[in-house]
Amino acid sequence: MQPIIIESDDFGMTIPISRAIITGLKTGVISTTNAQVTSPHFEMSAALAQQHGIMAMGLHLVLDKDRPISQPLTIPSLVTPAGFCHAYQTLQTHPKQLAIADVKREFQAQIDRFLASGLQLTHLTSHHFVATLTPEIYAIVLELAQTYHVPVRNETAHLRPTEQAAYLLLMSEYAVLTTGTLITAQQTPYLTPQEIKRQLTQKNLVGTPVILSHIGYLSAELRHKSRLTTNRLAEFNALKTLKQTNYWDQFSWQLTDYSELGAK
User: Fold this and answer.
1) Closest of 11, 48, 43, 14 to residue 30, by C-alpha
2) 113: region left, alpha or beta (phi > 0 left; psi from -120 to 50 alpha)
3) Closest alpha carbon to 259 in 155, 131, 122, 135
4) Contact 11/57 with Cβ under 8 angstroms?
5) Which of 10, 87, 143, 145 is an S-S bond match for 176, by CB 3.0 to 4.6 Å?
């Protein structure tokens, strides 16, 4: 059996998203998730998870859009005059303006808030792949992963080959486990069973693949917080279909989580 991780991002963004992810975990539709602690719904979502026996998950590091955990005055390069994190488009066009000390302070604050919930930290990911905005930011993520003895999701695949070299070099310098091929919506607006199957049958898969999904139930609040709305229901249904048709067993895939990654 070949190990595969099915992950849903954004636990805690809204309560309906958290409830859908809990259902997905309990029914074996997904195998792990990651929490967005900058959301005001994180604490309630964490309590719901623990009520359902879910005691561990990853952390989704955030640098865009939400209010930061740190006091805005202590991380001036990361926030707008109103005290919110910059829009992702701003981060993309001006990544070098982010002070590394500010990024490190905010990421540490997010880890502290996560651990204060009573959940166990299993791995690190990043919202909109902000971990790979610059090699310097990626180094902070790897350093934190090494400190807390957790793996990181390999999010370098979306970078151009000429950009990847610096990140791969960094990865070789830290005792941090990483995942392999990242399965995302490429030829479709959102993940479909066909798109997932297409990518999983390619011959260039490496390491433990991660299917990156966004599942959730809809709410009025979600429409103001994310461009991914009905897509979340569609991806939930796509993953349910693969489970119900026994796709994973038929093609010798074994659902697993970050605790099962092999040695670096």
Assistant:
1) 11
2) alpha
3) 122
4) yes
5) 145
Residue 100's H or E segment, with its range, is: helix 100-116
Q: How many residues does the chain have?
A: 264
Residue numbers in the chain where pLDDT is lower than 50 = none
Distance separating alpha carbons of residues 225 and 176, to the nearest angstrom: 32
Name residue, tokens 């849903």: 8
Can you tell me the distance from the alpha carbon of 184 to that of 193, in angstroms, rounded to the nearest whole number?
A: 12
Q: Do the Cβ atoms of 165 and 181 come closer than 8 Å? A: no
Q: CB count, 10 Å around CB of 200? A: 19
Query: pTM to 2 decimals?
Result: 0.95
Question: Which stretches of 76-206 are DSSP H helices?
Answer: 88-93, 100-116, 135-148, 161-172, 193-200
User: Residues 113, 114, 119, 123: is their CA dihedral positive or negative?
Assistant: negative
46 vs 10: CA distance, rounded Å = 12
Q: Phi first, then psi: give them for residue 184, nearest 5 degrees.
A: -130, 170
Q: What is the DSSP letter of 85?
A: B
State the virtual CA torsion across 145, 213, 103, 154 in degrees, nearest 10. 40
Q: Give residue-wise pLDDT tens across range 193-224.
A: 999 999 999 988 999 999 999 999 987 786 76
Mean pLDDT estimate for the chain: 94
Closest by Cα among 197, 264, 263 to 4: 197
User: Per the structure block, which two tokens stand in for 71?
Assistant: 């006091």
Residue appearing with tokens 């998730």 = 33
